[in-house]
Write a structure and sequence with these properties.
The chain is α+β, with helices and mostly antiparallel strands. Helix content is 52%, strand content 10%. The strands form 4 sheets. Strands 1-2-8-5-3 form a 5-stranded mixed beta sheet. A hairpin with a 1-residue loop joins β10 (467-470) and β11. α7 packs parallel to α20, α13 (270-277) packs antiparallel against α14 (282-313) and α14 packs parallel to α20. The protein is globular, with a radius of gyration of 24 Å.
Length: 500
Protein backbone atom coordinates (compact mmCIF):
# COMPACT_ATOMS: atom_id res chain seq x y z
CA UNK A 1 0.00 0.00 0.00
CA UNK A 2 2.80 2.42 0.93
CA UNK A 3 4.55 1.68 -2.38
CA UNK A 4 1.32 2.26 -4.29
CA UNK A 5 0.67 5.60 -2.58
CA UNK A 6 4.23 6.69 -3.31
CA UNK A 7 3.84 5.71 -6.94
CA UNK A 8 0.55 7.64 -7.24
CA UNK A 9 2.09 10.71 -5.63
CA UNK A 10 5.12 10.56 -7.93
CA UNK A 11 2.94 10.12 -11.01
CA UNK A 12 0.67 13.00 -9.97
CA UNK A 13 3.65 15.26 -9.42
CA UNK A 14 5.09 14.36 -12.82
CA UNK A 15 1.78 14.98 -14.56
CA UNK A 16 1.40 18.35 -12.84
CA UNK A 17 4.93 19.30 -13.84
CA UNK A 18 4.26 18.40 -17.51
CA UNK A 19 0.92 20.26 -17.43
CA UNK A 20 2.53 23.34 -15.88
CA UNK A 21 5.28 23.43 -18.50
CA UNK A 22 2.74 23.14 -21.30
CA UNK A 23 0.48 25.92 -20.00
CA UNK A 24 3.50 28.16 -19.38
CA UNK A 25 5.38 27.36 -22.58
CA UNK A 26 5.46 31.04 -23.69
CA UNK A 27 6.96 32.06 -20.35
CA UNK A 28 9.54 29.26 -20.54
CA UNK A 29 10.44 30.15 -24.11
CA UNK A 30 11.13 33.79 -23.25
CA UNK A 31 12.94 32.86 -20.02
CA UNK A 32 15.34 30.63 -21.97
CA UNK A 33 16.81 33.69 -23.71
CA UNK A 34 17.97 35.13 -20.39
CA UNK A 35 21.09 33.78 -18.65
CA UNK A 36 20.84 32.36 -15.16
CA UNK A 37 21.71 29.41 -12.93
CA UNK A 38 20.35 25.92 -13.76
CA UNK A 39 17.01 25.28 -12.08
CA UNK A 40 15.71 22.11 -10.44
CA UNK A 41 12.17 20.82 -11.04
CA UNK A 42 9.57 22.20 -8.61
CA UNK A 43 11.99 24.17 -6.38
CA UNK A 44 13.80 26.08 -9.12
CA UNK A 45 16.79 27.96 -7.66
CA UNK A 46 15.47 28.14 -4.11
CA UNK A 47 18.64 26.43 -2.81
CA UNK A 48 20.60 29.61 -3.65
CA UNK A 49 18.88 31.27 -0.72
CA UNK A 50 19.91 28.68 1.86
CA UNK A 51 21.95 31.18 3.84
CA UNK A 52 21.76 33.83 6.50
CA UNK A 53 20.17 37.14 5.51
CA UNK A 54 23.45 38.87 6.39
CA UNK A 55 24.98 37.14 3.34
CA UNK A 56 22.21 38.14 0.93
CA UNK A 57 24.07 41.10 -0.53
CA UNK A 58 27.20 39.07 -1.36
CA UNK A 59 25.19 36.27 -2.98
CA UNK A 60 23.26 38.71 -5.16
CA UNK A 61 26.49 40.46 -6.19
CA UNK A 62 28.06 37.14 -7.23
CA UNK A 63 25.04 36.33 -9.37
CA UNK A 64 25.49 39.57 -11.33
CA UNK A 65 29.23 38.97 -11.64
CA UNK A 66 28.53 35.61 -13.24
CA UNK A 67 25.55 36.38 -15.48
CA UNK A 68 25.70 40.11 -16.21
CA UNK A 69 23.10 42.91 -16.17
CA UNK A 70 20.19 40.58 -17.00
CA UNK A 71 19.70 37.39 -15.03
CA UNK A 72 16.83 35.03 -14.31
CA UNK A 73 16.21 32.67 -11.42
CA UNK A 74 13.25 30.58 -10.29
CA UNK A 75 11.70 30.42 -6.84
CA UNK A 76 9.55 27.34 -7.30
CA UNK A 77 7.30 28.09 -10.31
CA UNK A 78 7.86 31.87 -9.97
CA UNK A 79 10.14 33.38 -12.61
CA UNK A 80 12.25 36.27 -11.37
CA UNK A 81 14.22 38.43 -13.80
CA UNK A 82 16.79 40.86 -12.44
CA UNK A 83 17.70 43.93 -14.46
CA UNK A 84 20.67 46.14 -13.63
CA UNK A 85 20.91 48.19 -16.83
CA UNK A 86 20.13 51.84 -15.88
CA UNK A 87 18.22 52.76 -19.08
CA UNK A 88 16.03 49.68 -18.82
CA UNK A 89 15.44 50.29 -15.12
CA UNK A 90 14.01 53.72 -15.94
CA UNK A 91 11.92 52.29 -18.77
CA UNK A 92 10.48 49.53 -16.56
CA UNK A 93 9.81 51.54 -13.41
CA UNK A 94 7.99 54.23 -15.38
CA UNK A 95 6.02 51.77 -17.54
CA UNK A 96 2.29 51.27 -17.02
CA UNK A 97 2.91 47.59 -17.79
CA UNK A 98 4.97 47.20 -14.61
CA UNK A 99 2.90 49.08 -12.07
CA UNK A 100 2.22 46.58 -9.28
CA UNK A 101 4.42 45.32 -6.47
CA UNK A 102 5.83 41.84 -6.78
CA UNK A 103 4.51 38.74 -4.94
CA UNK A 104 7.09 38.88 -2.15
CA UNK A 105 5.45 42.03 -0.77
CA UNK A 106 2.56 39.85 0.38
CA UNK A 107 4.62 38.99 3.45
CA UNK A 108 4.24 42.62 4.59
CA UNK A 109 0.45 42.48 4.56
CA UNK A 110 -0.03 40.90 8.03
CA UNK A 111 1.81 43.89 9.51
CA UNK A 112 0.75 46.85 7.34
CA UNK A 113 -2.14 45.66 5.21
CA UNK A 114 -2.49 45.85 1.44
CA UNK A 115 -1.87 49.54 0.98
CA UNK A 116 0.84 51.99 -0.09
CA UNK A 117 3.96 49.98 0.79
CA UNK A 118 2.75 46.46 0.03
CA UNK A 119 1.04 47.55 -3.20
CA UNK A 120 -2.49 46.23 -2.72
CA UNK A 121 -5.44 47.37 -4.85
CA UNK A 122 -5.95 50.54 -2.78
CA UNK A 123 -2.37 51.83 -2.88
CA UNK A 124 -2.90 54.49 -5.55
CA UNK A 125 -5.89 56.14 -3.84
CA UNK A 126 -4.32 55.94 -0.37
CA UNK A 127 -1.14 57.54 -1.69
CA UNK A 128 -3.11 60.34 -3.38
CA UNK A 129 -4.81 61.23 -0.09
CA UNK A 130 -1.51 61.28 1.85
CA UNK A 131 0.62 63.12 -0.73
CA UNK A 132 -0.17 66.72 0.34
CA UNK A 133 1.41 66.08 3.76
CA UNK A 134 4.72 65.36 2.03
CA UNK A 135 4.83 68.23 -0.46
CA UNK A 136 7.15 71.25 -0.28
CA UNK A 137 4.55 73.58 1.21
CA UNK A 138 3.83 71.23 4.13
CA UNK A 139 7.54 70.49 4.67
CA UNK A 140 8.21 74.24 4.94
CA UNK A 141 5.57 74.47 7.67
CA UNK A 142 7.11 71.46 9.43
CA UNK A 143 10.56 73.15 9.43
CA UNK A 144 10.07 74.67 12.90
CA UNK A 145 9.51 71.19 14.38
CA UNK A 146 12.48 69.79 12.44
CA UNK A 147 14.71 72.53 13.87
CA UNK A 148 13.42 72.08 17.41
CA UNK A 149 14.00 68.32 17.41
CA UNK A 150 17.40 68.74 15.72
CA UNK A 151 18.43 71.09 18.49
CA UNK A 152 17.38 68.52 21.09
CA UNK A 153 19.52 65.91 19.32
CA UNK A 154 22.55 68.22 19.13
CA UNK A 155 22.28 69.09 22.83
CA UNK A 156 21.93 65.42 23.77
CA UNK A 157 25.03 64.50 21.80
CA UNK A 158 27.05 67.39 23.22
CA UNK A 159 26.60 65.90 26.71
CA UNK A 160 28.10 62.51 25.77
CA UNK A 161 31.42 61.50 27.29
CA UNK A 162 34.02 62.33 24.56
CA UNK A 163 35.82 59.05 25.19
CA UNK A 164 32.78 56.82 24.75
CA UNK A 165 31.99 55.02 21.50
CA UNK A 166 28.24 54.54 20.95
CA UNK A 167 25.74 53.69 18.22
CA UNK A 168 24.35 57.08 17.26
CA UNK A 169 21.32 55.50 15.55
CA UNK A 170 19.25 55.32 18.72
CA UNK A 171 19.72 59.00 19.61
CA UNK A 172 18.85 59.94 16.03
CA UNK A 173 15.82 57.62 16.09
CA UNK A 174 14.46 59.50 19.11
CA UNK A 175 14.61 62.72 17.11
CA UNK A 176 13.14 61.41 13.86
CA UNK A 177 10.34 59.74 15.82
CA UNK A 178 9.56 62.99 17.66
CA UNK A 179 9.54 64.92 14.39
CA UNK A 180 7.31 62.44 12.56
CA UNK A 181 4.85 62.21 15.45
CA UNK A 182 4.46 66.00 15.58
CA UNK A 183 4.05 66.39 11.81
CA UNK A 184 2.72 63.42 9.87
CA UNK A 185 0.94 61.88 12.87
CA UNK A 186 -0.51 65.24 13.97
CA UNK A 187 0.31 64.81 17.68
CA UNK A 188 1.59 67.32 20.20
CA UNK A 189 4.91 66.82 21.94
CA UNK A 190 3.11 65.81 25.13
CA UNK A 191 0.80 63.37 23.32
CA UNK A 192 3.41 61.44 21.41
CA UNK A 193 5.51 60.75 24.50
CA UNK A 194 2.52 58.98 26.03
CA UNK A 195 1.72 56.76 23.03
CA UNK A 196 1.06 53.12 23.80
CA UNK A 197 4.02 50.85 22.90
CA UNK A 198 6.03 53.74 21.41
CA UNK A 199 9.40 52.76 22.88
CA UNK A 200 8.87 49.08 22.11
CA UNK A 201 7.84 49.86 18.51
CA UNK A 202 10.97 51.98 18.06
CA UNK A 203 13.23 49.20 19.31
CA UNK A 204 11.46 46.27 17.64
CA UNK A 205 10.80 47.65 14.14
CA UNK A 206 14.16 46.55 12.74
CA UNK A 207 13.59 43.03 14.07
CA UNK A 208 10.14 43.02 12.44
CA UNK A 209 11.66 44.01 9.08
CA UNK A 210 14.26 41.29 9.51
CA UNK A 211 11.50 38.72 10.05
CA UNK A 212 9.65 39.90 6.92
CA UNK A 213 12.80 39.81 4.81
CA UNK A 214 13.67 36.31 5.99
CA UNK A 215 10.25 35.05 4.96
CA UNK A 216 10.65 36.80 1.59
CA UNK A 217 13.99 35.15 0.87
CA UNK A 218 14.06 31.87 2.81
CA UNK A 219 11.56 29.62 1.06
CA UNK A 220 11.14 27.12 3.89
CA UNK A 221 9.67 29.86 6.11
CA UNK A 222 6.87 30.13 3.57
CA UNK A 223 5.68 26.65 4.59
CA UNK A 224 3.09 27.28 7.36
CA UNK A 225 4.12 24.29 9.53
CA UNK A 226 7.82 25.26 9.50
CA UNK A 227 6.88 28.91 10.08
CA UNK A 228 5.01 27.81 13.20
CA UNK A 229 7.58 25.20 14.30
CA UNK A 230 10.47 27.70 14.28
CA UNK A 231 8.57 30.12 16.50
CA UNK A 232 8.43 32.70 13.71
CA UNK A 233 4.62 32.70 13.68
CA UNK A 234 4.58 33.50 17.40
CA UNK A 235 6.92 36.44 16.84
CA UNK A 236 4.76 37.67 13.95
CA UNK A 237 1.68 37.71 16.18
CA UNK A 238 3.61 39.62 18.84
CA UNK A 239 4.66 42.28 16.31
CA UNK A 240 1.13 42.50 14.89
CA UNK A 241 -0.33 43.13 18.34
CA UNK A 242 2.36 45.70 19.12
CA UNK A 243 1.74 47.59 15.88
CA UNK A 244 -2.05 47.40 16.11
CA UNK A 245 -2.17 48.81 19.65
CA UNK A 246 0.29 51.58 18.75
CA UNK A 247 -1.58 52.62 15.60
CA UNK A 248 -4.98 52.37 17.32
CA UNK A 249 -3.81 54.83 19.97
CA UNK A 250 -2.68 57.39 17.37
CA UNK A 251 -5.89 57.12 15.35
CA UNK A 252 -8.11 57.34 18.44
CA UNK A 253 -6.32 60.51 19.58
CA UNK A 254 -6.77 62.13 16.16
CA UNK A 255 -10.46 61.16 16.02
CA UNK A 256 -10.99 62.85 19.38
CA UNK A 257 -9.02 65.96 18.40
CA UNK A 258 -10.92 66.38 15.13
CA UNK A 259 -14.22 66.49 17.04
CA UNK A 260 -13.33 69.96 18.30
CA UNK A 261 -10.55 71.37 16.09
CA UNK A 262 -9.39 71.45 12.48
CA UNK A 263 -5.76 71.77 11.39
CA UNK A 264 -4.93 74.09 8.48
CA UNK A 265 -4.87 72.16 5.21
CA UNK A 266 -1.16 72.74 4.50
CA UNK A 267 -0.11 71.64 8.01
CA UNK A 268 -2.37 68.60 8.19
CA UNK A 269 -0.86 65.20 8.95
CA UNK A 270 -1.64 62.00 7.10
CA UNK A 271 -3.82 60.52 9.86
CA UNK A 272 -6.17 63.50 9.74
CA UNK A 273 -6.31 63.32 5.95
CA UNK A 274 -7.29 59.67 6.05
CA UNK A 275 -9.95 60.21 8.71
CA UNK A 276 -11.49 63.25 7.01
CA UNK A 277 -11.47 61.64 3.56
CA UNK A 278 -14.08 59.11 4.64
CA UNK A 279 -12.65 56.70 2.05
CA UNK A 280 -10.80 54.28 4.34
CA UNK A 281 -12.04 51.80 6.90
CA UNK A 282 -10.73 52.13 10.45
CA UNK A 283 -8.47 49.13 9.86
CA UNK A 284 -7.04 50.70 6.71
CA UNK A 285 -6.40 53.98 8.52
CA UNK A 286 -4.47 52.13 11.25
CA UNK A 287 -2.45 50.16 8.73
CA UNK A 288 -1.47 53.18 6.63
CA UNK A 289 -0.72 55.14 9.81
CA UNK A 290 1.90 52.61 10.85
CA UNK A 291 3.19 52.23 7.28
CA UNK A 292 3.92 55.93 6.92
CA UNK A 293 5.12 56.28 10.50
CA UNK A 294 7.76 53.58 10.23
CA UNK A 295 8.89 54.34 6.66
CA UNK A 296 9.37 57.98 7.68
CA UNK A 297 11.06 57.81 11.08
CA UNK A 298 12.99 54.55 10.65
CA UNK A 299 14.38 55.29 7.19
CA UNK A 300 15.24 58.89 8.11
CA UNK A 301 17.11 57.68 11.21
CA UNK A 302 19.19 55.20 9.22
CA UNK A 303 20.19 57.74 6.58
CA UNK A 304 20.92 60.49 9.13
CA UNK A 305 23.07 58.05 11.10
CA UNK A 306 24.85 57.08 7.89
CA UNK A 307 25.64 60.72 7.06
CA UNK A 308 27.03 61.34 10.55
CA UNK A 309 29.04 58.08 10.38
CA UNK A 310 30.59 59.14 7.06
CA UNK A 311 31.41 62.63 8.35
CA UNK A 312 33.27 60.95 11.21
CA UNK A 313 35.13 58.67 8.81
CA UNK A 314 36.10 61.56 6.51
CA UNK A 315 37.53 64.43 8.61
CA UNK A 316 38.29 66.59 5.56
CA UNK A 317 34.70 66.36 4.42
CA UNK A 318 33.48 67.02 7.95
CA UNK A 319 35.48 70.26 7.96
CA UNK A 320 34.11 71.31 4.56
CA UNK A 321 30.54 70.60 5.63
CA UNK A 322 31.02 72.39 8.95
CA UNK A 323 32.60 75.46 7.33
CA UNK A 324 29.82 75.61 4.76
CA UNK A 325 27.14 75.28 7.45
CA UNK A 326 28.65 78.09 9.49
CA UNK A 327 28.95 80.37 6.45
CA UNK A 328 25.48 79.65 5.06
CA UNK A 329 23.38 79.05 8.18
CA UNK A 330 25.42 80.29 11.15
CA UNK A 331 23.61 79.48 14.38
CA UNK A 332 20.08 80.30 13.29
CA UNK A 333 17.33 77.88 12.29
CA UNK A 334 17.73 75.93 9.05
CA UNK A 335 15.49 77.08 6.19
CA UNK A 336 14.59 75.63 2.81
CA UNK A 337 16.88 78.18 1.14
CA UNK A 338 19.78 77.16 3.38
CA UNK A 339 19.36 73.53 2.38
CA UNK A 340 19.63 74.48 -1.31
CA UNK A 341 22.98 76.18 -0.64
CA UNK A 342 24.62 73.41 1.40
CA UNK A 343 26.35 71.69 -1.51
CA UNK A 344 28.99 69.76 0.45
CA UNK A 345 26.34 68.38 2.78
CA UNK A 346 24.26 67.37 -0.24
CA UNK A 347 27.17 65.36 -1.66
CA UNK A 348 27.68 63.46 1.61
CA UNK A 349 23.92 62.89 1.81
CA UNK A 350 23.80 61.42 -1.70
CA UNK A 351 26.82 59.23 -1.07
CA UNK A 352 25.04 57.89 2.01
CA UNK A 353 21.93 57.12 -0.06
CA UNK A 354 24.16 55.33 -2.57
CA UNK A 355 25.94 53.26 0.06
CA UNK A 356 22.94 52.50 2.30
CA UNK A 357 20.06 51.94 -0.12
CA UNK A 358 16.64 52.70 1.36
CA UNK A 359 15.38 49.65 -0.53
CA UNK A 360 18.06 47.12 -1.35
CA UNK A 361 15.81 45.34 -3.85
CA UNK A 362 12.58 46.35 -5.59
CA UNK A 363 10.19 43.75 -6.98
CA UNK A 364 7.43 44.46 -9.50
CA UNK A 365 5.00 42.24 -11.40
CA UNK A 366 5.08 42.39 -15.21
CA UNK A 367 1.43 42.63 -16.25
CA UNK A 368 1.99 42.72 -20.03
CA UNK A 369 4.94 41.61 -22.12
CA UNK A 370 7.58 44.34 -22.34
CA UNK A 371 10.76 44.40 -24.42
CA UNK A 372 14.11 45.63 -23.08
CA UNK A 373 17.84 45.46 -23.92
CA UNK A 374 17.28 47.03 -27.35
CA UNK A 375 14.75 44.36 -28.28
CA UNK A 376 16.88 41.38 -27.32
CA UNK A 377 14.86 40.42 -24.24
CA UNK A 378 11.10 40.21 -23.75
CA UNK A 379 9.82 39.95 -20.20
CA UNK A 380 6.78 37.64 -20.18
CA UNK A 381 3.55 38.59 -18.44
CA UNK A 382 3.45 37.22 -14.91
CA UNK A 383 7.19 37.62 -14.40
CA UNK A 384 8.51 39.05 -11.14
CA UNK A 385 10.88 41.85 -12.06
CA UNK A 386 13.69 42.47 -9.56
CA UNK A 387 15.53 45.80 -9.58
CA UNK A 388 18.71 45.48 -7.45
CA UNK A 389 19.09 49.09 -6.30
CA UNK A 390 21.98 48.25 -4.00
CA UNK A 391 23.94 46.53 -6.76
CA UNK A 392 23.14 49.29 -9.25
CA UNK A 393 24.59 51.81 -6.81
CA UNK A 394 27.90 49.97 -6.66
CA UNK A 395 28.28 48.85 -10.25
CA UNK A 396 31.88 49.62 -11.32
CA UNK A 397 30.59 50.49 -14.80
CA UNK A 398 29.13 53.65 -13.31
CA UNK A 399 30.96 54.15 -10.02
CA UNK A 400 34.73 54.37 -9.66
CA UNK A 401 35.98 52.36 -6.68
CA UNK A 402 32.36 51.70 -5.64
CA UNK A 403 33.12 50.12 -2.25
CA UNK A 404 34.87 53.29 -1.06
CA UNK A 405 33.02 56.14 0.65
CA UNK A 406 33.63 59.05 -1.75
CA UNK A 407 31.22 62.04 -1.61
CA UNK A 408 33.27 63.72 -4.37
CA UNK A 409 31.67 61.38 -6.87
CA UNK A 410 28.69 63.78 -6.64
CA UNK A 411 30.68 66.85 -7.69
CA UNK A 412 28.93 68.37 -10.75
CA UNK A 413 31.80 67.47 -13.08
CA UNK A 414 31.66 63.82 -11.93
CA UNK A 415 27.87 63.58 -12.13
CA UNK A 416 28.00 64.67 -15.79
CA UNK A 417 30.17 61.66 -16.67
CA UNK A 418 27.69 59.15 -15.23
CA UNK A 419 24.44 57.75 -16.55
CA UNK A 420 21.77 59.68 -14.57
CA UNK A 421 19.73 56.48 -14.20
CA UNK A 422 22.57 54.78 -12.29
CA UNK A 423 21.47 56.63 -9.13
CA UNK A 424 17.82 56.06 -8.15
CA UNK A 425 17.74 56.18 -4.33
CA UNK A 426 14.02 56.99 -4.20
CA UNK A 427 13.03 54.67 -7.07
CA UNK A 428 11.13 56.03 -10.10
CA UNK A 429 7.63 56.21 -11.50
CA UNK A 430 4.23 56.08 -9.86
CA UNK A 431 5.51 53.98 -6.94
CA UNK A 432 8.57 56.09 -6.11
CA UNK A 433 9.33 57.16 -2.53
CA UNK A 434 6.46 59.31 -1.25
CA UNK A 435 8.54 60.90 1.52
CA UNK A 436 11.68 61.99 -0.35
CA UNK A 437 11.13 65.77 0.13
CA UNK A 438 10.10 65.33 3.77
CA UNK A 439 12.99 62.99 4.58
CA UNK A 440 15.63 65.09 2.83
CA UNK A 441 14.67 68.22 4.75
CA UNK A 442 14.49 66.40 8.09
CA UNK A 443 17.77 64.54 7.63
CA UNK A 444 19.77 67.59 6.53
CA UNK A 445 18.33 69.72 9.34
CA UNK A 446 19.36 67.11 11.92
CA UNK A 447 22.87 66.96 10.45
CA UNK A 448 23.29 70.75 10.40
CA UNK A 449 22.37 71.14 14.07
CA UNK A 450 24.55 68.18 15.05
CA UNK A 451 27.67 69.11 13.10
CA UNK A 452 27.81 72.66 14.37
CA UNK A 453 27.46 71.48 17.97
CA UNK A 454 29.81 68.46 18.07
CA UNK A 455 32.84 67.09 16.28
CA UNK A 456 32.39 63.46 15.19
CA UNK A 457 34.92 60.63 15.01
CA UNK A 458 33.80 57.30 13.58
CA UNK A 459 35.15 53.80 13.91
CA UNK A 460 35.75 51.60 10.89
CA UNK A 461 37.23 51.64 7.39
CA UNK A 462 36.36 54.07 4.59
CA UNK A 463 36.00 51.20 2.12
CA UNK A 464 34.02 47.97 1.95
CA UNK A 465 31.99 48.61 5.10
CA UNK A 466 30.26 45.53 6.48
CA UNK A 467 26.59 45.72 5.53
CA UNK A 468 23.42 43.70 5.95
CA UNK A 469 19.97 43.94 4.48
CA UNK A 470 16.53 43.73 6.04
CA UNK A 471 14.41 45.50 3.40
CA UNK A 472 16.85 48.45 3.55
CA UNK A 473 20.65 48.29 3.71
CA UNK A 474 22.29 49.18 7.02
CA UNK A 475 25.65 49.11 8.76
CA UNK A 476 26.00 45.57 10.11
CA UNK A 477 27.73 46.63 13.33
CA UNK A 478 25.84 49.85 13.91
CA UNK A 479 26.72 53.51 13.36
CA UNK A 480 29.45 53.74 15.97
CA UNK A 481 30.94 57.16 16.71
CA UNK A 482 32.54 59.35 19.35
CA UNK A 483 31.55 62.99 19.76
CA UNK A 484 32.95 66.00 21.56
CA UNK A 485 31.58 69.55 21.86
CA UNK A 486 33.06 72.06 19.44
CA UNK A 487 35.09 75.01 20.67
CA UNK A 488 33.65 77.68 18.42
CA UNK A 489 34.61 81.10 19.77
CA UNK A 490 37.90 81.33 17.92
CA UNK A 491 36.32 80.10 14.71
CA UNK A 492 33.57 82.72 14.90
CA UNK A 493 35.98 85.59 15.43
CA UNK A 494 38.31 84.46 12.66
CA UNK A 495 35.48 84.12 10.13
CA UNK A 496 33.24 86.98 11.20
CA UNK A 497 30.31 84.74 12.14
CA UNK A 498 27.81 86.08 14.66
CA UNK A 499 26.60 83.85 17.46
CA UNK A 500 22.88 83.97 18.13
Amino acid sequence: MYFLLTLVAAASSLLYWVYWRWTNRRLLELASSIPGPPAYPFIGNATIFLFNTKDQLNKIAKMFDEYGEYCRFWLGPELNITVKNPADIRLLLTSNKVNHKGPQYKFMIPFIGGGILSGGPTWRNHRKIATPSYNKKSVQIFADIFNAEAEVLANTLSKKNPGDTFNIFYDVLNSTTAAVCQTLMGLSKEEYKDLKNLREVMLQTQRMYDLIFKQMTQWWLQIPFIYWLTGTRKRQLYYQKLVDEFSSDIVARRHKALETTRVHEDAMGIVDRYILSGELTEEEIKQETFTLFTTSQEAAAKITSGVLLFLGLLPDWQKQVYDEVMQVVGYGPVTEQHLKELHYLDMVYKETLRYFSIAGLIQRTVEEEVTINDGKITLPAGTSLVIPIHELHRDPKHWEDPLRVMPERFLPENVKKRDPNAFVPFSLGAMDCLGRVFATALIKTLVVHTIRKVHITSEGPTSNLELEIAISVKAAKGYNVRVKPRETNGYHKANGIKQH
